[in-house]
Amino acid sequence: MGWRVSAQDPQIVDAAIKRLHLKQLSMHYINRISSGELQKVCIARALVQKPKVLLLDEPTASLDLHNQVEIMRTVRMVVEQHPVGVVMAIHDLNLALRFADTFLLLKDGIIQAGGQCEELNAEMIHQAYGVPVEIIRHGTIPVVIPCLESPNP
Predict the structure, then answer these.
(1) Helix (H) or strand (E) holding 136
(2) % of the chain residues with pLDDT over 90
(3) Are 97 and 140 contained in the same domain?
(4) pLDDT digits (tens, 9 = 90+) for 96-115
(5) 40 near 20, Cβ under 8 Å?
(6) 90, 109, 135 — which closes off a domain?
(7) pLDDT beyond 60 at 23
(8) Under 8 Å between Cβ of 45 and 17
(9) What secondary structure, in 3-state letters, does 52-115 show?
(10) Rounded to whole angstroms, how far apart are CA atoms 27 and 4?
(11) Could you say which of 40, 62, 90 is where a domain stops?
């Protein structure tokens, strides 16, 4: 790592801007863009460093539904088009199941369950989070629905 810009650096940055469809933001001040746009810029910034693994901590937190889906699509595209893996902490199970290949459920920092997303079942979620759920399928996508049972008097 050096302090000088190499001849390839501008090309690498331009490629990331194009790949993540950020051209319209390239000359904006960072404090003048939306939270969703900022997340995409952060992903692009990480990609130009050519990592082997991206570690993302709640990349969709505080974003509206449109931007949540946009960020997750971007991350999925990055995985499909680059030699990079992604490890992501995310609390929205449905969003995670829609875009991830594998999962880990943690409770108090201890792995409770893990595997391919299609292996996830209601009992695993109940054990990890203490909430009974139903898992239904919308096409091939599992959808987690919390069971809101009324307490016994």
Answers:
(1) strand 133-138
(2) 51
(3) yes
(4) 999 999 999 999 999 999 99
(5) yes
(6) 90
(7) yes
(8) no
(9) CEEEEECCCCCCCHHHHHHHHHHHHHHHHHCCCEEEEECCCHHHHHHHCCEEEEEECCEEEEEE
(10) 21
(11) 90
Cα–Cα distances in Å, from 137 out to 48, 70, 97, 134?
37, 22, 11, 10
Residue 117 CB-density burial (10 A; 0-12 exposed, 13-18 middle, 19+ buried): middle
Q: Are residues 41 and 86 in the same domain?
A: yes
Task: Provide φ and ψ at 105, rounded to 5°.
Answer: -105, 125
Enter the tokens of residue 115: 């595997």
Q: Tens of pLDDT along 137-146? A: 999 889 999 9
Question: What gap in Å lies between CA 74 and CA 141, rounded to an integer?
Answer: 18
pLDDT for the residue 152: 52
Question: Using alpha carbons only, what angle is made at residue 40 by residues 66 and 15, rounded to the nearest 5 degrees?
Answer: 130
DSSP 118: G
Q: Are 87 and 53 in contact (CB under 8 A)?
A: yes
Residues 58 and 99 both lie in one domain: no
Domain that holds residue 112: 93-153
